Amino acid sequence: MPARPNVFVTRKIPESGLLLLKKETDVTLNPNDRALKRNEFLEYIKGRDGILTQLNDKMDAQVMEAAGKQLKVISNYAVGFDNIDVKEATKRGIVVTNTPGVLTEGTADFAWALLMSAARRVVEADALVRQGKFVGWDPLLLLGGNIYGKTLGIIGFGRIGQAVARRAYGFNMKILAYHPSRVIEAPGIAAKFVSLSELLKESDFITLHTPLTPETRHLIGEKELKSMKPTAYLINTARGPVIDEAALAKALKEKWIAGAGLDVYEKEPEVHPELLKLPNVVLAPHISSASFETRSDISLLAAKNLLAVLRGEPSLHRVN
Ligand code: GLV
């Protein structure tokens, strides 16, 4: 690698990774506490040997061209890498890496947080108490759906989907799994693999754990939502465009399904305006991996990936 490679980190990240990068490279950090605007971004990335990117940094041909021919690695601070034009990077000889594994358990925890919040109306309950509307025990106040003993449908049965499944044993749930792209091994996990239509019809809770690809875009639309039980809940901690958000807003408003818990949106940071008005959906700002431990581990792994490529070593997690 060049004596001191020149690295750009597009957002402030936990220290663990930054310290590692600083040992071997000259690091420039986005000085703002916000994502860079496109024109700023195009300036900042010029002449870098490596870029450590966030999932909302769109890494397309224009960006790669602006960075220059010396760019060797784009290290994404995320497991999902739909923000990167991987084909274009490959064409230009740029290695792309991601951070699988380290966020599996944290993300599975959060899928459960959304599931339980949606089913038992935790957010509505909190709002009611804060608004001074808790006027005493009420046998019919804020009734929700039971979780224990119900059927959990997991769409995308990779690392995170399986981690969600393991947590379901404590709730004595029946697990249905659908994995869109290929047959997948799930050793030791008692799940029944079914078709998407069977999963939609039979599940009381459906949780999404697929990457965003052309095949999974709008995997859940009007037809799919209509085939769910009216008592069912839909949870999304994967990527927003896996659901047709307008169709979901309609489904929640017209009660085709009971509720939803969302951490991701079709056009982040925008949220469909109808969703913002509905009480039967819990809305989170893309924080499934946002635990101290997980974000520190992501930082470290993204830095390790980037350094390995610059050193000419096999990277831990290259996607191209
Ligand atoms: C978060 O959304 C990730 O892909 O890591």
Report the sheet with the most strands, covering strand number, pairing sense and barrel closure.
Answer: 7 strands, parallel
The CATH topology annotation of the largest domain reads as: Rossmann fold
Q: Give every kind of bound small molecule, once each.
A: glyoxylic acid
CATH architecture of the largest domain: 3-Layer(aba) Sandwich
Q: What is the beta-strand fraction? A: 5-15%
Number of strands: 12
How many domain units?
2
From the spread of the alpha carbons, the general shape counts as: globular
> Number of helical segments?
12
Mean of the pLDDT scores? 96
Can you identify the CATH superfamily of the largest domain? Answer: NAD(P)-binding Rossmann-like Domain
Q: What is the CATH class of the largest domain?
A: Alpha Beta
Order the strands across the largest sheet as they lie in space.
8-7-6-9-10-11-12
CA-atom Rg in angstroms: 21 Å
> Regions with pLDDT < 50 over 5+ consecutive residues?
none
- End-to-end Cα distance, whole Å, is 20 Å
Coarse structural class: alpha/beta
Percent of residues in helices comes to 25-40%
Summarize the structure.
This protein is an alpha/beta fold and 320 residues long. The chain has twelve helices and twelve strands. Helix 5 (104-120) crosses helix 7 (159-168).
Describe this structure in words.
- A 7-stranded parallel β-sheet has the order 8-7-6-9-10-11-12, sandwiched between helices. Strands 2-1-3-4-5 form a 5-stranded parallel β-sheet.
- The protein folds into 2 domains: 6-102 and 293-311, 3-Layer(aba) Sandwich (Rossmann fold), CATH 3.40.50; 104-283, NAD(P)-binding Rossmann-like Domain (Rossmann fold), CATH 3.40.50.720.
- 35% of the residues lie in helices and 14% in strands.
- The longest helix is centred in the last third of the chain and has 20 residues, at 292-311.
- By secondary structure, the chain is α/β, with parallel strands linked by helices.
- The model has no long low-confidence stretch (mean pLDDT 96).
- It binds glyoxylic acid.
- Glyoxylic acid is lined by residues 55, 78-80, 103, 289.
